Inverse folding.
């Protein structure tokens, strides 16, 4: 299994541009998540999904959109990029929280710079 | 919401030394994970340990859920252990979403 994969690894955007960060998992996990990590900080939840067609906001959702059309894919969309969105973005997946094995597995991250 | 505190914030060790990292949390949890973020930014799962004790080589972890803390032990440290160690917890608050709340991490530097 490849686990959780993310593309691209790095990206530089100009203010006002838009882009989509891709995330795919092959572990048949129902739950998927997007986190961001600012320098010197822990990760914060942006959006999450408990299954195809179901998404909800996390702690820091402003400026982002998500969709979940399949179990495997959970893309994160940035519209009108701003310097405050300069961060490292991590995608994760897990089984539902009611299971005893609800460990989250993380992708390698996407380092985004907005200038 | 749930609060997660890690200590110490920074730690410098000589190679071969042992250390204990602590994670305190403010509410009941059904998920607790320890991660190592290496100098290249990669998050590595160390332990999934909502309760009990686990060991993996030179690393071990213990979570005492009733007292709301977890400990990560690193023995015979190596330079490759350097990086940031994060504790993250998840619970059934706000619905069964398994959202993880991360601590601010412990920055470990192991010197040769």
């Amino acid at each position: 299994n490849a686990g959780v994969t993310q593309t691209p690894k790095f990206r530089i955007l100009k203010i006002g541009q838009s882009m989509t960060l891709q995330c795919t998992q092959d572990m048949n996990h129902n739950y998927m998540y997007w986190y961001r990590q600012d320098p010197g900080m822990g990760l914060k939840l942006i959006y999450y999904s408990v299954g195809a067609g179901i998404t909800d906001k996390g702690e820091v959702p402003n400026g982002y959109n998500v969709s979940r059309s399949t179990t495997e894919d959970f893309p994160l969309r940035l519209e009108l990029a701003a310097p405050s969105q300069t961060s490292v973005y991590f995608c994760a997946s897990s089984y539902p929280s009611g299971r005893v094995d609800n460990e989250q597995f993380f992708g390698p991250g996407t380092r985004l710079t907005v200038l | 919401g749930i609060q997660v505190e890690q200590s110490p914030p920074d730690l410098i060790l000589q190679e071969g030394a042992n250390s204990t990292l602590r994670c305190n949390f403010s509410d009941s949890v059904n998920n607790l994970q320890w991660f190592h973020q290496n100098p290249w930014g990669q998050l590595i799962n160390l332990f999934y340990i909502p309760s009990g004790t686990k060991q993996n080589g030179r690393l071990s972890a213990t979570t005492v859920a009733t007292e709301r803390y977890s400990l990560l032990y690193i023995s015979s440290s190596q330079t490759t252990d350097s990086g940031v160690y994060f504790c993250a917890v998840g619970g059934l608050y706000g619905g069964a979403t398994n959202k993880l709340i991360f601590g601010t991490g412990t920055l470990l530097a192991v010197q040769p």
Observations:
- Chain B touches chain A through 23 residues (CB under 8 Å).
